[in-house]
């Protein structure tokens, strides 16, 4: 087993989830040193293995989201699989699952059953709508959670339909909340001195809903319903993306008077900083069409290099709209070592995001990428749980592992 380091070295996690939300939460913990064992159905496997992009029939996404995990196969719907699962629960500090509510209970693996074998276990449950409420039993994928969160309703341009994100934003956001909650519960357990675990209920839609801070209080107090404004924001201006003469898009945010004054100087119009139309945030929002026209004309007359030089010289808050090919070449990403190269048994070497955030004393690491089904079966079921070779053979023949 590859040596673990990082701030979470010593934390033991069972990843019983599939697809994105649960496995991503466990991945974040594993990046920072937790010992993560991932469980897959021995026949059906994790559906993520069928997702694109694929190379030589293998899911590239899998390599990232299931890195740093010891992989086992186990059928949790079978009694023998449940027995082995409970043994693993006795080893674990945290269990992560993202099945439809009630599934773990149907498998005799609800929190009460887990707590019998390990009173300190923390069960993190990620689902579309949470474990309670009228929608709890509905199938919950990120796309629907994003729609229900309120964010999609105000994302896009005024003359376009509501715009869904092009990646599973709800799943990955919920994963961050799930990982944070697991660590908070672990701290409580340790500080209390009572070794008491707990059950944590994370939903996809609520994770996004929590991030739109002003929406609830704005509607409560003023009846505001945020509308689609494209790349603008109703709260401040200028805030937009502008295209240069050589077809490069550059994003600008100059919401404070100080940053707006710097932008006005950068575009050669310092007098606009004190212009009655633009000398406060509310006035800039009120006159945003006129303001955007001035800034857009300035960008349209310059190349990206010319515009960037002027903006940097005046310390303007600006940056290019990057695609992934540009990110691979960008000096900031390179300086921060945001992309790491990892040895891979299938492709030789692969590159992926480095662990984040960055710790000065106990940095995280990518020890190995996501591997094949049951790669660590013998190590976990044999070495950790003590099963003999003939037992492993019988379990494999009966598709329990």
3D architecture notes:
By secondary structure, the protein is of the alpha/beta class. The protein contains 17 helices and 13 strands. The chain has helices at 21-31, 60-65, 79-91, 103-106, 111-117, 142-148, 169-192, 204-209, 213-222, 257-266, 281-286, 288-300, 304-313, 324-329, 331-335, 377-384, 389-397; strands spanning 12-15, 35-40, 54-55, 58-59, 69-73, 94-97, 122-127, 198-203, 239-243, 249-253, 318-320, 339-344, 348-353. The strands form four sheets. Strands 5-2-1-6-7-8 form a six-stranded parallel beta sheet, sandwiched between helices. α1 crosses α7 (169-192). The radius of gyration is 25 Å and the shape is elongated. The relative contact order is 0.14.
Annotation keywords:
401 residues; alpha/beta; six-stranded parallel β-sheet; 17 helices
């Amino acid at each position: 087993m590859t040596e673990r380091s990082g701030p979470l070295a010593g934390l033991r996690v069972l990843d019983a989830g599939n697809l994105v939300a649960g496995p991503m939460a466990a991945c974040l913990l594993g990046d920072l040193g937790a010992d993560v064992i991932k469980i897959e159905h021995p026949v059906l496997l994790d559906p993520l293995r069928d997702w694109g992009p694929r190379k030589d029939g293998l899911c590239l996404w899998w390599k990232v989201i299931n890195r740093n995990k010891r992989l086992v196969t186990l059928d949790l719907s079978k009694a023998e699989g449940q027995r082995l699962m409970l043994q693993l629960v006795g080893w674990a500090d945290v269990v992560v699952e993202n099945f439809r509510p009630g599934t773990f209970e149907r498998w005799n693996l609800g929190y009460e059953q887990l707590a019998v074998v390990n009173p300190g276990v923390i069960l993190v449950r990620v689902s579309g709508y949470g474990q309670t409420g009228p929608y709890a039993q509905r199938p919950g994928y990120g796309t629907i959670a994003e729609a229900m969160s309120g964010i999609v309703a105000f994302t896009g341009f005024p003359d376009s339909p509501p715009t869904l994100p092009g990646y599973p934003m709800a799943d990955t956001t919920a994963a961050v909340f799930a990982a944070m909650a697991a660590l908070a519960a672990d701290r409580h357990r340790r500080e209390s001195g009572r070794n008491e675990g707990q059950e944590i209920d994370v939903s996809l839609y609520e994770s996004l809903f929590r991030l739109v801070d002003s929406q609830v209080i704005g509607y409560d107090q003023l009846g505001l319903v945020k509308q689609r404004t494209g790349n603008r924001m109703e709260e401040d201006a200028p805030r937009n993306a502008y295209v240069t003469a050589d077809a490069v898009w550059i994003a600008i945010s100059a919401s404070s008077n100080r940053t707006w004054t710097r932008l006005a100087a950068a575009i050669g119009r310092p007098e606009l900083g004190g212009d009655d139309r633009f000398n406060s945030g509310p006035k800039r929002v009120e006159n945003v069409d006129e303001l955007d026209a001035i800034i857009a004309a300035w960008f349209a007359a310059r190349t990206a290099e010319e515009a960037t030089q002027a903006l940097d010289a005046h310390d303007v808050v600006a940056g290019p709209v990057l695609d992934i090919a540009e990110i691979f070449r960008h000096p900031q990403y390179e300086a921060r070592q945001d992309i790491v190269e990892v040895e891979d048994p299938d492709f030789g070497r692969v590159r992926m995001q480095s662990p984040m955030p960055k710790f000065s004393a106990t940095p995280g690491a990518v020890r190995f990428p996501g591997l094949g089904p049951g790669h660590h079966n013998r190590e976990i079921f044999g070495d950790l749980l003590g099963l003999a070779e003939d037992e492993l053979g019988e379990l494999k023949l009966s598709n329990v592992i």
